[in-house]
Structure formats: C-alpha cells, structure tokens
Specification:
Number of helices of chain B: 0
Helix content of chain A: under 10%
Radius of gyration of chain A: 13 Å
Strand order of the largest sheet of chain B: 2-10-9-4-5-6
Strand content of chain B: over 45%
Structural class of chain B: mainly beta
Order of helices and strands of chain B: EEEEEEEEEE
Distance between the termini of chain A: 35 Å
Largest sheet of chain B: 6 strands, mixed
Helix content of chain B: under 10%
Largest sheet of chain A: 6 strands, mixed
Number of strands of chain A: 9
Oligomer: heterodimer
Largest interface: A-B, 25 and 25 residues
Order of helices and strands of chain A: EEEEEEEEE
Strand content of chain A: 35-45%
Radius of gyration of chain B: 13 Å
Number of helices of chain A: 0
Chain lengths: ~110, ~120
C-alpha cells in the first residue's frame, strides 16, 4: 500500500488560510469517507484534528475544516495562528490493507 | 485523563527481538481496539498493527507480517508488540493509539496517541 501524497510544505501569514491536499486512489481516499487529519508539533505525538472527512473532535477549533473530492482530500486552516505551525498528516481507511497515512506537510506561519 | 505510555524501546542488533508495552489509563481498556503506529524521519507515519477489544481480530501491515505479534492483557490495561527478526528499516518511534471502535480492521481513527518509544535496529 503506497502512502498518500501530500505537498511537503505550505505556508501562510497570520489570519490567512492554508489548504493542504491529500491524494490517494479509489482504493483508499476515493473509496471511503474515512479520511482523518493529524497535527504534530515537534517532539510531540500526533493529535487528531479531523475524522470521517469533515468531522471535528470536541476541542478542535472550527478554524480547521476538511473536505473530499474524488481521490483527493483537503484540510483547510482558516485564520492561521502561530500555534498552527506544525506537521500535518492525512490518513485513510484502505480496505484490505486497512490504514494508510500521507507523506506529511509542514505548515509554516510566516 | 486518558493516558497511553509506551516502553520497551532501545538499541537492538539486526535479527534480534524486542517487546514493546503500552500501559493505558483513564478509559475502559477492554471496550476498544488498539493499534501500533510507527514514525520514521524518512517515511513518515506507518500503521503497524491493530487488535480488537477481545483479541479475536488482529491485523498487520505487510511490512511486519510474520515477524511482529500484537497482543493485549485487559486485566493489566496493557498492549504489547513482540518484534522478532528486526531489520534496520524497523528503526522508528513506535506509538500506541486508541481507536473508538471495538474491532480492528474497520474504518477508524487514532485518538489519542502515546508519546512513543524509540526502537533503533543497528549493529
């Protein structure tokens, strides 16, 4: 099972929006509405930010939103704040090889 | 407060074995499936293995199938990963993570994660 493809980096100024893509295939992202997004600060464990494409766990700011079109899922962070600077990983259910992660995107707040 | 604490990592020679543990607290352990996920600088995050609440359903990534064995002891609120025939490419930070469902292999998310334990395979 190949990793999902994410851009290595993305950036935006405080208050702006940044969108990260996550591209897979019809066997993972495109085949199921089970895409999750994780935020990871340096030296910390990943934290769930979005699940089932667009659902936010309690406690996650509504500045974080998710969507999907075909084989590509997206995470948008609106109203960027300094604390949003982190690595972000997508993940998808993939059937027989059940779980696949993305390559990761480093978000920089300029 | 939900806590997952991994232990057992270290430096090991290729071909040798290591057993990781994950001690959990703050939730009813035997109500949920549990997973191991590893992270390497070069390859990012990789799901390794998952186990259902009652150990009846177990899944492995192809990269570790036949070498790693996941298990759990619900009486001790603990998850384990027995790693045999270790290879340099198994070098990673190993996380345990909780799923919101009872069964492994079904669509899920990983929440929360422990802080990880580092495994280094090198001669």
């Amino acid at each position: 099972q190949s990793a999902l493809t994410q851009p290595p980096s993305a950036s935006g100024s405080p208050g702006q929006s940044v969108t990260i893509s996550c591209t897979g295939t019809s066997s993972d992202v495109g085949g199921y509405n089970y895409v999750s997004w994780y935020q990871q600060h340096p030296g910390k464990a990943p934290k769930l930010m979005i699940y089932e494409v667009s659902q936010r766990p309690s406690g996650v700011p509504d500045r974080f939103s998710g969507s999907k079109s075909g084989n590509t899922a997206s995470l948008t962070v609106s109203g960027l704040q300094a604390e949003d600077e982190a690595d972000y990983y997508c993940s998808s259910y993939a059937g027989r090889n059940p779980y696949v992660f993305g390559t990761g995107t480093k978000v920089t707040v300029l | 407060e939900v806590q997952l604490v991994e232990s057992g990592g270290g430096l090991v020679q290729p071909g040798r074995s290591l057993r990781l543990s994950c001690a959990v607290s703050g939730f009813t352990f035997d109500d949920y499936a549990m997973h191991w996920v590893r992270q390497t600088p070069g390859k990012g995050l990789e799901w390794v293995s998952g186990i259902s609440w009652n150990s009846d359903s177990i899944h492995y990534a192809d990269s570790v199938k036949g070498r790693f064995t996941i298990s759990r002891d619900n009486a001790k609120n603990s998850l384990y990963l027995q790693m045999n025939s270790l290879r340099p490419e198994d070098t990673a930070l190993y996380y345990c993570a909780k799923a919101p469902e009872k069964y492994s292999g079904s669509p899920t998310r990983f929440d929360p994660w422990g802080q990880g334990t580092l495994v280094t395979v090198s001669s």
